[in-house]
Fold each of these.
Amino acid sequence: MEEKTNPPAKPTQPQTPTPGPQSALLGPLIVVSGPSGVGKTTVVERLLDETKLKLRRAVTATTRDKREGEIEDVSYHFWTKDRFLKERDERRMLEWAVVFGQDYYGTPRSEVERADGKGVILVIDVQGAARVRELCPDCLSVFIAPPSFEELEARLRGRGDVSAERIQRRLEEARKEMARAGEFKHQIVNRELAQAIRDLEAVIRERFDTQ
């Protein structure tokens, strides 16, 4: 999921907290976060592909345009702004935020409350993770960190799919997000992909009986 900047004004969240989805799950709720370019989505996708953990990744929603290679309802739920705001206003979003003042991103509650016997992994930004921890304090939260800020910058610049201005904005946001790594129960350094996958699997198995 793309990283989000804090909007000029803090988004209005429901004033009365609603019950979290943990009680509706038949398995664990795992929140994985980290700065843009750190590889958190790749780590999670490879984890699900290569292990027999009874987990599924929640598909988040966005109002931005679909990019080449992305698949509807697999990469994201691609919604119109009107639909997103309707879902938000009807309190069907677990968390949401605005990206660079224009695109909306968020997690539909239906993605974490689906009674399919599997636990759920949310791959979201630090802002969204804080909201989920507030609603679901028993969730397992994991921060994926780069080996260094310089390595993160090199990864972002090596993508070649965003402008220099957008990269700079992501780097500025990354500094803020990395400063909040201590808010998470576990921190994993993605220095080498295979090891990061093993580390994430280990903390999940340590916390949950997820065979």
Amino acid sequence: MAEDFAKGVAVVAGGTGGIGRSICLALASAGLDVAFTYRSNPDAADSLVESLQALGVKAMAGRVELTDPDSVKGFVDEVAGKTERIHSVVYAAGPHLPMKFINAITPQEWRSVFDNDVNAAFNLVWATLPHLKQGGGGAMVAVITAAVEKVPSRDICSAAPKAAIEMLFRGVALEEGRFGIRANCVAPGFINAGLGQELLTRPGIESFVEGLRKALPLKRFGEASDIAEAVVFLLSDRARYVTGQSLAVDGGLQL
């Protein structure tokens, strides 16, 4: 699949998360060099670097505070200075979320969720867009949630910021397409990885989880690799005429 990508590097924000790690590995399997961010787990970052290098690509990890524009820009500029070009950008980060009814969410929790998700995604876009333009174009993908299409109960702290990120990436698609830049989103449903896995394996709600599984048309929960393959496709030249779209990878959850 290397012929589906230009020479250079893919930048992944949130590379050590359950879905982010799978995305990094899928990109490396496609022959791409990968530079990823992590927040607080250097052991997981070192392990991922080793796994990526074992696939025959160059790998770089950076401890980045995504809510800090200077931290994000410093990492992105460092990556750009060490590679031929940045041609792919993935936002796969996100904070731990309070699963609460709206009437129980505090203003502080609401502000924190938006700062750690929406503002973090904007900082990544802001830092990487100049490099994509300088390199003659490229592609961006944000991992959001299938819940943006249906108002969820006790999950508004996921759906609301991801809806804002979806609109941000659609705006990039509209405004930056003339520079050869595409921007799309992948919207996971119930995925047995990362934050989704924490929910699905929570003690005491087994019957509730089984009800969720049975309600899905495909009768199974997704895997991180399902999301990763969709991300790789949207970044590749095989999706060269796809921009401003959101691809639901949800087992039919939105039906």
Amino acid sequence: MTHPDLMSTPRLITSRANPTFKALSALASDPRAPRCEGRALADGIHLVASCFAQGIAVQQLLVSESGQQHPQIAALLASTGGIDCLLFSDALFREISGVATPTGIAAVITIPPLPADEITGDAVLLDAVQDAGNVGAILRTAAAAGVRDVVLGTGCAGAWTPRVLRAGQGAHFGLRIREQADLLTTLDQCRGLSIATVAREGTNLYALDLRQPAVWLFGNEGAGLSAGLAAAAQRRVTIPLAAATESLNVAAAAAVCLFEAVRQRQK
């Protein structure tokens, strides 16, 4: 642990005209910025602490004037000496955070490089899942279910945008995430049983043997999986629902499927 005496003195920023504020605001608001710049904004005490716990490279720490009085934030700052620290007025910090009542600390982190090795075990492939909350929730569920590889196709919400990071609650840092991937090519290279989740006319989820590695395909919130991906999968599976129910939210469906596999493997 770095000695508190080495903690860098925060630089106060109070103007929207400040170039640093403008750059951070763009990083927070432009969904293309994280991958283009190779850095992301992790907002909140839990996420910042997770970054340090998982050994994620932190480029800068951002703190609000009121946030620096928070005991947990003060403790984090005292243990992270040598990292450039910026102090913002509460109003400017709220603009960067995008949260109505932010906790008062965020970190600019280096996005881990795309994994180069092939996928050999369980994996989740997302086809145009556009809602940031859904993508983050699926990442969190995948990590909790022991799945390491998540592949996002074109049209998905950016994995490293602030909203997805918040919804993932630190799950990102234990996953190998690929973005903007050609899912058909990825599917062809995976070794596990490929399973397309469809709203109807698939095999009953609970009748499928999931004790082997599985590559799960989840589709867009409205349109579902593309026809090409559904046809390329080795199995089509449907979650049985009550008669009057049309479908499940994609994040909920992912949780049901992944933890059915966990259940079967624990029997």
